Amino acid sequence: MSQWNQVQQLEIKFLEQVDQFYDDNFPMEIRHLLAQWIENQDWEAASNNETMATILLQNLLIQLDEQLGRVSKEKNLLLIHNLKRIRKVLQGKFHGNPMHVAVVISNCLREERRILAAANMPVQGPLEKSLQSSSVSERQRNVEHKVAAIKNSVQMTEQDTKYLEDLQDEFDYRYKTIQTMDQSDKNSAMMNQEVLTLQEMLNSLDFKRKEALSKMTQIIHETDLLMNNMLIEELQDWKRRQQIACIGGPLHNGLDQLQNCFTLLAESLFQLRRQLEKLEEQSTKMTYEGDPIPVQRIHMLERCYQWHPAFCERQPCMPTHPQRPLVLKTLIQFTVKLRLLIKLPELNYQVKVKASIDKNVSTLSNRRFVLCGTNVKAMSIEESSNGSLSVEFRHLQPKEMKSSAGGKGNEGCHMVTEELHSITFETQICLYGLTIDLETSSLPVVMISNVSQLPNAWASIIWYNVSTNDSQNLVFFNNPPPATLSQLLEVMSWQFSSYVGRGLNSDQLNMLAEKLTVQSSYSDGHLTWAKFCKEHLPGKSFTFWTWLEAILDLIKKHILPLWIDGYVMGFVSKEKERLLLKDKMPGTFLLRFSESHLGGITFTWVDHSENGEVRFHSVEPYNKGRLSALPFADILRDYKVIMAENVPENPLKYLYPDIPKDKAFGRHYSSQPCEVSRPTERGGKGYVPSVFIPISTIRSDSMEPHSPSDLLPMSPSVYAVLRENLSPTTIETAMKSPYSAE
Question: Which residue of 60, 619, 737, 742 has the smallest Cβ count within 10 Å?
Fold first, then answer.
């Protein structure tokens, strides 16, 4: 079943997450119509290869043309219109930057896999639960209710302003009427009564002006309270969700709802501003001693402009490493997107943003950076798919400034991956003759000068965003706090779901907990930063994070399809492995990651001796070097062992618990099964054709392979020559020679 078909079968809460990341950059219509073709292309490789990206973009447009031809025959007018529009948008947007479309599509496919993995995980962790508390939902409903109430109050003051205008017009009419009367009439009783009426009207006008201004003041006060308390709290919660999403957690949504609330409040304040301008006009036409409008209007107008929240919608990220945001390499471009949380046409092209780094510096060292590239841009609605005001910086590069001593700082030090820096955005809004200055910052970033520093830098980003809600604690690693073990293990599962498409189940997490804490229960307890990333594992020459990162790299580059299908148990101890296999049919095997070799994977199978004794056999772990030469699925298919004097045979029959090997891995085989070629068979140009197959020898009196050198690549033709010219005993003796390891 295609990935897109699996996505369409998800529950509605997961489908809502999918809907969040499809927009005009990559419309969902295209994903749906070209699902299989899209999934068969290597978009991730194209995101780092301009030639490949150009070819894929052209092929995408060709695929769209073919779809247009098909729907044209069906006379589907709406679909024809949409496809033509989409084709025009894609060609216009990505023609000069084909790698960007590869990045967008690669990100969408990866997020789909992450959501599919999350949907298959039966238990939510503590971090994910904390983001979905009922109190948060209740507060959101309360905010929306208060926003609606403020909007209704502004409508009421609009009526008050209109009433004041009508009352003043009537007063003006009566007053002018008196002014035109003859002098004799001015002393009449009717004239005296009219003067009393005018005085009452003036008193009423004064009262209504004060009442209207009081209501407006109350609205502004309620708006301030709502923005500075509940809405800011909502925004802080969204920032926390963004922190979690940056380290592989659930996709954050709800920013559009927040923008809607801020926009409605801004519209209400704009409406109040217009009402205050009308009151000013009325006061200009007619004022009097004690008139409240000139006294209060200016202060109230100033308060009407305190509502412009700017926010870092997409955190800094190198397009070459989309799954490692907030880690930036010197002289490598990164992207970052800022958004104004109001949506008013009056602001379009009137908002300027300047990006800088280390503007307010308080870090662990004296390293300083500058941003090269276009660092000043204007916000516009064209930068977003939903019409919001935003700006995206796509071509910024960090460059380290030389130290006062003339050197390049301490780029080579390990501590570089524990130094936090901040990208600051100075936003200037010009509106109605006023200039409003705002400032916001990204989450802390880690600067590296060599890609080899990336794993440790990413560990720092994980630890920071797990351990604190503070979005600007740049001295965090002066004294990093411990992390809750249960939260950390949840984040480890996210690393696998976001990076390699499948998270970890409770059994796999238990094994990691045991490795970290030498205990089987991880519901309580804490883990230190040193234990996670700095101290070596007991008896090993590497840290826990180095070991885990090597496994992620192994999966990503060499066994990704097998991992996504769930055929790699991976995290299981040797003791647990034997418990699982001991009662299974001979030839049952499982795949697990090596605990002693970085980035290694091995398999263990079970069989029985002649007296019925259970035996377990594990091969030397395969690492990326060996898997680059031979796909792992092919290794499992072609693997052979020589038992005593028997001919080679494949001992792997059933993937644990009882899945026939070919049923599990058949669709992942990349070549035809290897057949032994006789030396008399001639290949091209006079050579005997040969292929490599993995062969092990196992002593009949041993329950384990006696050395790592047991697993040696041997071509079928070489083995055929040995079989034809040497006796089985001679072959066995030679393979047991101490020189065979060489």
Answer: 742
State whether residue 234 is helix, strand or coil.
helix
Residue 695 has pLDDT above 70, yes or no: no
Q: How far is CA 381 from the centre of its chain?
A: 23
Three-state secondary structure readout of 448-479: ECCHHHHHHHHHHHHHHHHHCCCCCCCCHHHC
HSE-up (13 A, CA, CB side) for residue 440: 21
Phi, psi of 443 (to 5 degrees): -65, 155
3-class state of residue 587 by DSSP: coil
Average pLDDT over residues 717-742: 49
Which CATH superfamily, name and number, covers 506-668? SH2 domain (3.30.505.10)
Q: List alpha helices for 596-675, DSSP H.
A: 624-629, 632-638, 661-665
Q: Distance between CA atoms of 232 and 228, rounded to whole angstroms?
A: 5
261/338 Cα distance (integer angstroms): 18
Report whether pLDDT(374) > 50: yes
Q: Minimal CA–CA distance to 596: which of 551, 641, 555?
A: 551
If pLDDT is split at 50, 70 and 90, which confidence band does 626 have? confident
Q: Which of these, 64, 105, 71, lies nearest to 85 by C-alpha position? A: 64
DSSP for residue 536: B
Residue 718, pLDDT score: 46
2.60.120.1690, 2.60.40.630, 1.10.275.10, 3.20.20.70: CATH of 310-401+415-450: 2.60.40.630
- Separation between Cα atoms, residue 388 and residue 714, nearest integer Å: 63
| CATH 1.20.1050.20 intervals, the chain | 135-182+189-304
User: Residue 443 pLDDT more than 90?
Assistant: yes
Q: What is the pLDDT of residue 487?
A: 85
What is the CATH number assigned to the segment(s) 3-120? 1.10.532.10
pLDDT (tens digit, 9 = 90+) per residue, 18-29?
A: 877 777 777 888
Q: Which of 18, 63, 19 is nearest to 37 (CA)?
A: 63
Tell me if 740 sits within 8 A of 733, measured CB to CB.
Answer: no
The CA R_g of the chain, rounded to the nearest whole Å, is 35
Is CATH 1.20.1050.20 correct for 135-182+189-304? yes
The mean per-residue pLDDT over the stretch 58-76 comes to 78
Buried/exposed code over 712-731 (b: 16+ C-beta within 10 A; e: otherwise): eebbbbbbbebeeeeeeeeb
Q: What is the pTM (predicted TM-score) of this model?
A: 0.75
Neighbours of 534 (CB within 10 A): 15
